[in-house]
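4.2 Preliminary Data

To establish feasibility before requesting continued support, the project team ran the inverse folding procedure on a target of 287 residues. The structure was first converted into the token representation described in Section 3, and no sequence information of any kind was made available to the design step. The complete token record follows.
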């Protein structure tokens, strides 16, 4: 029997990575998001809508140059950690290290602390934006991949899920997605990126939708059927006329990302997780 040597990773490395990812996510718009805004500004025919897009591009430039947050809402930190099964963490608790990274970023980086300890009752602020929402996955290999979202409350609040049934079919899924963006209107700070999860179970479909937002904005879905669905949904959403920040225009969404998972014969769960484009803060790192 061959023994595969474990790769030791000190949790301090994870802590430092999380700190940096949180800071970068808040200060610097990712290249794919910036490029999507630039394309949208060129195409937008509504004058006011175009002006909003150009102002949002200016906002990204100023935020990156001055190292200030792109938005006052600096978000809930959601971490997806894919951990190779040949990794052995040393130096303490992984969960504590991740929360330490968040704490350091939000304290030293003067980012707004947005987390309350109890959702009902006192709703007292934890003062350092912890705890992060943490999704752990064990994968093959010896890498650790971290995906960090700083997820704004406005767009998150307008996200929805529904347990459709197979009889509702693809049309039911499409209608639910469009209806969600329509109900959100200006409240999700459009232009949005629309993450759609279809399949799985009640608990997993929301995670599927959120993770789909980590895909590069403007990238083509490798599944041709889903690529066609994304194109149709994007076209229908942008025909709603909500426009940048709700001022009207063609740019209500920058992209639609659809992810699917196997599901029960009696089920058709669907979740729509909206990501505000003006503060689309997703970062990825492999250590
Ligand atoms: S939804 Fe996004 S852009 Fe709007 S206030 Fe929240 S973080 Fe900022």
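Position-by-position output of the design step:
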């Amino acid at each position: 029997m061959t023994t595969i040597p474990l790769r030791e990773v000190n949790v301090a490395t994870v802590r430092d990575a999380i700190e940096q990812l949180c800071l970068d996510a808040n200060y610097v718009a990712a290249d794919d998001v910036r490029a999507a805004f630039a394309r949208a500004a060129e195409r937008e025919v509504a004058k006011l809508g175009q002006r909003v897009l150009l102002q949002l591009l200016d906002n990204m430039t100023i935020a990156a140059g001055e190292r200030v947050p792109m938005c006052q809402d600096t978000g809930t930190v959601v971490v997806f950690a894919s951990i190779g099964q040949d990794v052995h963490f040393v130096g303490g608790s992984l969960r504590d290290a991740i929360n330490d990274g968040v704490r350091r970023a939000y304290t030293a980086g003067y980012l707004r602390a947005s987390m309350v300890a109890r959702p009902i009752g006192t709703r007292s602020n934890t003062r350092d934006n912890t705890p992060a929402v943490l999704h752990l996955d064990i994968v093959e290999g010896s890498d650790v991949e971290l995906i960090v979202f700083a997820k704004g409350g406005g767009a998150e609040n307008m996200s929805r899920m529904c347990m459709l049934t197979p009889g509702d079919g693809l049309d039911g899924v499409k209608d639910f997605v469009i209806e969600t963006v329509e109900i959100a209107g200006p409240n999700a700070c459009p232009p949005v990126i629309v993450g759609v999860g279809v399949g799985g179970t009640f608990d997993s479909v929301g995670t599927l939708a959120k993770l789909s937002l980590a895909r590069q904005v403007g990238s083509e879905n490798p599944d041709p059927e889903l690529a066609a669905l994304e194109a149709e949904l994007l076209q229908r959403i942008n025909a709603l006329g909500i426009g940048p920040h709700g001022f009207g225009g063609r740019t209500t969404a920058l992209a639609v990302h659809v992810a699917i998972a196997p599901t029960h014969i009696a089920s058709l769960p669907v979740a729509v997780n909206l990501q505000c484009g003006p503060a689309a803060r997703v970062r990825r790192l492999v250590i």
